[in-house]
Amino acid sequence: MLICWGTKYPVSIVNRLVRAIAEHSPGVARFTLLTDRDREGLDPRVTPVQMPAFFLQPPLMRAGCQAKLCMFEPGVLPTDLPAIYVDLDTLVFGDLGQALSLMDTPQTVAMLQSAIIPFGPVGRFIHRRTQGRKYARGNSSLVVFHPAQCHYIAQRFRELFAQHPDLGYRPMAADERFISWAAQPHMKALSGRFAVKLTLEYMSRIRVWLWIKPLLPWIRARRRQQVAVTLNGIDIKPENLMKLRDGDVVTDNKGRALIWSGWTLGAMRQRILDFYAGVV
User: Fold this and answer.
1) In this structure, are residues 132 and 160 in contact, taking their beta carbons and an 8 Å threshold?
2) Residue 207, class by beta-carbon neighbours within 10 Å (0-12 exposed, 13-18 middle, 19+ buried)?
3) DSSP state of 88
4) Which parts of the chain are beta strand (E)?
5) For residue 235, how many C-alpha atoms fall within 13 Å in the half-sphere facing its CB?
6) CATH 3.90.550.10 domain span(s) along the chain
7) What is the pLDDT of residue 151?
8) What are phi and psi of 159, to 5 degrees?
9) Average pLDDT score over the chain
10) What angle do CA 118, 121, 126 make, to 5 degrees?
11) Confidence (pLDDT) at 115
12) What is the DSSP string of 117-130?
């Protein structure tokens, strides 16, 4: 399941991701694109679904991407099967269906881990003890959930938005924060052997570490097993990476560096080039 609003992403990006998922995930039952407008040239395998007007309010379509919470709105997605949401800035080169085995119960919501507090018993304990003020957080580039069991996330957001239209209540700051907070009792982390953020796996504030990591056998093994890598962050979008020359360095707003080198990135550099060739 994909989401696209505005004009930032061309249909070619959507179609490239659909082709990759279809190629590597034979068990996929359907492709759904939640969108704010008609998308000419969309892959015929994709069913476009209009995003609810509530989530198209300007405050929800900014950097916090709260509009993505429409995936949990009743009536938007079919409720007969689990769903896997994939950000458009994601490279897929393996079977995403593996993620469904991570669902302990139909209520499970799985995302990439993004904060120090871990998902699981520790995160739930801290969430309870602080009455929701502190909690484990994830990154919503990949979200595994069952639509039939998660309508409460959108409903809770609607309730809080009526009380806090300025999004001033802390968990409302971003879609991934809100998902993590609202579904904390059911949250689970996607393994780094399944999927990672490029910023976490291939970037660092300590540049020498980027040259050392490829030497470590457990890191090489982990990277071989990964089926998806998401290009999170405005500085490492496909159109920017495709212009880099060997040895170029990109630094994001958190001071993390990416060294565009066959040594530091290994097979990932060529995977990025191949994935987006002729697309961006």
Assistant:
1) no
2) middle
3) S
4) 2-4, 31-35, 46-50, 83-86, 90-92, 109-113, 138-145, 187-190, 195-197, 228-230, 249-251, 257-259
5) 14
6) 2-190
7) 99
8) -60, -45
9) 95
10) 70
11) 80
12) SPTTHHHHHHHHHT
Amino acid at 37: R
- Cα 221 to Cα 214: distance, rounded to the nearest angstrom: 10
For the cut 80, the answer to whether the pLDDT of residue 110 exceeds it is: yes
pLDDT at 233 over 90: no
Interval 276-280 mean pLDDT: 90
| Closest alpha carbon to 187 in 117, 260, 111, 87 | 111
Which token pair is 152? Answer: 């409460």
Write the class of the CATH domain 2-190.
alpha beta
Name the token pair of 103: 């669902």
- Over range 76-104, report the average pLDDT: 96
Q: Phi and psi of 129, rounded to 5°?
A: -65, -30
| 14-61 pLDDT per residue, tens | 999 999 999 999 999 999 999 999 999 999 999 999 999 999 999 999
- Euclidean distance between CA atoms 226 and 198, whole angstroms: 12
pTM: 0.95
Query: Is residue 188 classed exposed, middle or buried when 0-12, 13-18 and 19+ CB atoms within 10 A define those classes?
Result: buried
Which residue stretches of 137-266 are H helix?
A: 151-163, 175-182, 198-201, 207-212, 217-225, 238-241, 262-265
Q: Distance (Å, rounded) from C-alpha 159 to C-alpha 213?
A: 46
* pLDDT of 116 higher than 90: no
Cα dihedral 70/73/75/78 (nearest 10):
80
CA–CA dist 84, 24 (Å, integer): 14
Contacts of 173 (CB under 8 A, 6+ apart): 64, 167
The amino acid sitting at 82 is: P
C-alpha–C-alpha distance, residues 178 and 167, integer Å: 11
Decide: helix, strand or coil at residue 91: strand
What mean pLDDT do residues 181-204 have?
A: 96
Which two structure tokens, joined as six digits, stand for 145? Answer: 């959930």
The amino acid occupying position 229 is V
